[in-house]
């Protein structure tokens, strides 16, 4: 089940995550490199001392000390960037290995650290870490002619899950700097813990469990909520979904839900109606008697930039359900409590619930269209539950696709409890 991760062989499209991390194998240009090249400090100081007899020695000492501190601070900041870059490339290299070989990583924590430290995976060099491991960063810094004597030593790198979307990778760095005139020196040890984002990296869970028929990159759910009842009425009839409009003269009314003061006096032909007064329209789908519906629905749409509206007869509510967009586009969500596995667990093929993980939904319609193997129709659509070898039963949710299933406990986290 080999597959080239750099290019999706089935669809012939470049994967954006590799482009974003870096298009070249020659290594990352770090900000400290540019800074050091622009500060030929040692030559400046030599010239300064030899060309003037009136300057006080304390002034020279201060200039050197200030510049020494500036370089030391820049090296420290750049060390965190080096960890982040090498960590991102390590995650990509692991996903690449999984998708090429058809087998998960045995210990993602250990292998991520190996890639960051050595540029190797199971002892074999990874082209993605060429010139981008932490020691490679160190070599770049030490190879720059700055006029200073520089010593760099790092140790104690560890990798752990932070929030499913990110790793935390603390490491110690000891920086020793001195000028060649013997005027000033700095020695300092820090232990930053930078985040290593997994955004846009391919989640191997889908490819492995569908025989490469379905692929999915880790993209964060972009909305502030999953489901909210924007307005509640005194009477309702029917269930329907459409684009909200406040214009009685809107084009293509058969695809829209009109939100007005008096639905009974509004023009006909709309797919559904939301009325602020209790007057009932001659329509098959409506919610009426919804106080302040115009302002409430409009404010929610502006806040979320999601204009679809669902009218639910049972709750007499006008609902905003951007979770539908999350299902269709395969977005990932993070919950601090029990959730799906984070990026490290997914690289290991671990489908157990965890804390501070992430999860998305399987799109059964897409599974059918691509010919991927299906589970029971009652199977929960949460990805890590769907791909387990047991039945994790769920219930239907009104306003979501007819095939969608989720347990009551999981539905509560998404604000869907009233729609079950």
Give, in spatial order, the strands making up the sheet with the most strands. Answer: 11-18-17-13-14-15-16-12
The number of strands is: 20
Q: Rounded to an integer, what's the Rg over CA atoms?
A: 29 Å
Shape: elongated
Q: Output mean pLDDT.
A: 88
> What is the number of helices?
13
> What's the end-to-end separation, in Å?
39 Å
Give the structural class: alpha+beta
Strand content: 15-25%
General description of the model:
This protein is 32% helix and 20% strand. By secondary structure, it is of the alpha+beta class. Strands 11-18-17-13-14-15-16-12 form an eight-stranded mixed β-sheet, with helices on one face. The protein has a three-stranded antiparallel β-sheet with strand order 5-8-9, with helices on one face. The protein contains 13 helices and 20 strands. It is elongated and about 90 Å long. Helix 2 packs antiparallel against helix 4 and helix 4 (57-101) crosses helix 5 (108-118).
């Amino acid at each position: 089940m080999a597959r080239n991760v750099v290019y999706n062989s089935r669809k012939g499209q470049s994967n954006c995550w590799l482009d974003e991390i870096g298009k070249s194998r020659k290594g990352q240009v770090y900000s400290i490199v540019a800074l050091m090249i622009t500060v030929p400090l040692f030559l400046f100081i030599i010239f300064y001392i030899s060309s003037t007899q009136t300057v006080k020695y304390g002034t020279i000492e201060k200039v050197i000390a200030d510049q020494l501190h500036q370089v030391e601070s820049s090296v420290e900041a750049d060390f965190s960037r080096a960890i982040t870059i090498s960590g991102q490339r390590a995650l990509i290299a692991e996903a690449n290995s999984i998708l090429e070989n058809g087998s998960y990583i045995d210990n993602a924590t250990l292998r991520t650290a190996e890639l960051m430290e050595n540029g190797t995976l199971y002892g074999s060099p990874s082209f993605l870490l060429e010139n981008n491991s932490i020691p490679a960063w160190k070599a770049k810094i030490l190879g720059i002619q700055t006029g200073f004597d520089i010593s760099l030593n790092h140790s104690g790198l560890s990798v752990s899950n932070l929030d499913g979307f990110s790793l935390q990778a603390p490491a110690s760095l000891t920086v020793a700097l001195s000028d060649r005139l013997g005027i000033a020196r700095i020695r300092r040890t820090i232990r930053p813990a930078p985040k290593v984002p997994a955004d846009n990296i391919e989640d191997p869970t889908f490819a492995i469990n569908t025989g490469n028929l379905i692929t999915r990159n880790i993209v964060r759910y972009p909305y502030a909520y999953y489901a909210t009842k924007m307005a509640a009425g005194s009477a309702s009839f029917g269930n329907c979904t459409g684009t909200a409009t406040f214009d009685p003269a809107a084009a293509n009314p058969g695809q829209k839900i009109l939100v007005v003061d008096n639905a009974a006096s509004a023009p006909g032909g709309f797919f559904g109606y939301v009325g602020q007064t209790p007057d009932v329209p001659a329509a098959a789908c409506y919610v009426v008697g919804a106080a302040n519906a115009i302002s409430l629905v409009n404010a929610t749409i502006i806040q979320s930039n999601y204009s679809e509206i669902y009218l639910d007869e049972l709750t007499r509510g006008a609902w905003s359900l951007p979770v539908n967009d999350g299902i269709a586009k395969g977005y990932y969500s993070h919950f601090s409590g029990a959730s799906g596995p984070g990026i490290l667990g997914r690289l290991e093929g671990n489908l157990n619930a965890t804390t501070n993980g992430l999860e998305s939904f399987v799109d059964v319609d897409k599974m059918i269209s691509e010919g991927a193997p299906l589970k029971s129709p009652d199977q929960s659509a949460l990805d890590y539950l769907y791909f387990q070898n047991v039945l994790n039963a769920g219930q239907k949710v009104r306003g979501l696709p007819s095939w969608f299933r989720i347990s009551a406990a999981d539905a509560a986290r998404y604000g869907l409890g009233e729609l079950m």
